[in-house]
Design goal:
The chain has a domain of 163 residues: MetI-like fold (Orthogonal Bundle). Helices cover 68% and strands 0% of the residues.
């Protein structure tokens, strides 16, 4: 029984080999910095300082850096504050984005185009850092954890993505719901949001990662160290080089200070790396559904 086979030319074979080699090299370039940080955090401080060249395994296995991180009271406090900011902030973000996207996706409103123009303008121009600071102070949010949530309650680009996804939902579903007496909130929460789960999952990832990595607003608005998010604690350790509170008096500072920095990076990064695989399956689908159309 003869089989139809597609003949592959020599040029196509060469391209496939080159493509595989190039992508493999790109993967190594992207992956190695992460492996370096992991191996360095598990290394002995003295041997790490003496090491020259690529680090392909821990230089003398040691958990001293992680023990020092566990002794720092600011790490658990930063975790609690950051988790609160991510959970509450992302919830507020999705709620505000859904309300704005629902309004803009309405086919029976007359000011949608004008509103869209003003919304797009805010993506290119902002009040600036000083007006933002004065606004936070005038609202009584200064030195409050809510200063890291309310001023960034809505991202216009994400709202436009969700609005485009809403516009892809058949209007007949909304009309049927209204015939049964459903109001706007019922249509939004019972029809639009359930049918946009993929896009919502992508926005949750966008907003969550943004809150998790944010430190500049906390640097400007927070003075009480008990309210520091994890990234601000991380900044103190990496940039200000404040590791004294994490060191045991019986351990030489120079032997462990560098490995502590790497250990803190791992501790601050792992939660996002663990969360991403659960949302990855929605990523491409959600972005394509909510893609901004011209």
């Amino acid at each position: 029984m003869s089989k139809n086979r597609i003949k592959i030319s020599i040029g196509e074979r060469i391209f496939d080999v080159f493509n595989v080699v190039f992508l493999f090299a790109l993967m190594v370039v992207c992956l190695y910095p992460m492996l370096y940080v992991l191996f360095a955090s598990l290394s002995n401080g003295v041997q790490l300082m003496r090491h020259i060249g690529l680090l392909l395994r821990p230089a003398g296995f040691s958990l001293s850096a992680y023990e020092a991180v566990a002794r720092n009271e600011m790490i658990p406090t930063g975790y609690v504050n950051t988790i609160f900011i991510v959970a509450v902030g992302t919830t507020v973000n999705i709620f505000m984005s859904a309300l704005g996207a629902y309004f803009l996706a309405r086919r029976d409103q007359t000011i949608g185009k004008a509103a869209m123009i003003f919304i797009v303008i805010t993506m290119f121009f902002s009040g600036g850092m000083i007006p933002g600071y004065l606004n936070v102070r005038s609202l009584g949010l200064y030195n409050s954890i809510w200063a890291l949530i309310f001023p960034v309650a809505l991202n216009t680009f994400n709202m436009i993505i969700l609005k485009t996804a809403f516009m892809g939902i058949p209007s007949s579903l909304e009309e049927s719901a209204k015939l049964d007496g459903a109001g706007h909130l019922t249509v939004l929460f019972r029809i639009f949001l359930p049918l946009s789960k993929a896009t919502i999952a992508v926005l949750v990832l966008y907003y969550g990662v943004s809150h998790w990595n944010s430190w500049f607003n906390a640097f400007m608005y927070i003075q009480d160290r008990a309210l520091y998010p994890l990234q601000l604690v991380l900044r103190e350790i990496l940039i200000v080089n404040d590791t004294n509170s994490m060191l045991n008096v019986s351990v030489d500072v120079e032997q462990i200070a560098d490995t502590i920095k790497y250990a803190v990076v791992i501790v601050a990064t792992v939660p996002i790396l663990v969360l991403y695989p659960f949302l990855q399956k929605y990523f491409v689908k959600g972005v394509m559904i909510g893609a901004v159309k011209g």
